[in-house]
Specification:
With about 70 residues, this protein is an all-alpha fold. It has one domain. About 70% of the residues lie in helices and about 0% in strands. It is built from four helices and no strands. The longest helix is centred in the C-terminal third of the chain and has 34 residues. It is elongated and about 50 Å long. It starts with a helix and ends with a helix.
Length: about 70
């Protein structure tokens, strides 16, 4: 696995990345309806997914190109 085998890939931004941010959930206007809770969690997951897709994976690919 590239992440484990190369410490150069470890980046502060990515080690703090969470798919669900508890702080944001707790700061929401509680109580939430189940559909509102689901929408909030889906939005947070999508944001994390996009961060990985746009930044982390590209860094891994660049590193793989350098190593091989």
């Amino acid at each position: 696995m590239l992440f484990v085998s190369s410490p150069r890939v470890i980046n502060y931004r990515f080690c703090k990345l969470r798919f669900v941010k508890l702080k944001d959930l707790l700061s929401a206007d509680l109580p939430l309806l189940p559909s509102e809770f689901e929408a909030l969690v889906k939005e947070q997951c999508w944001e994390a997914h996009e961060e990985l897709r746009k930044r982390y994976y590209i860094k891994c690919l660049r590193l793989a190109n350098i190593l091989y």
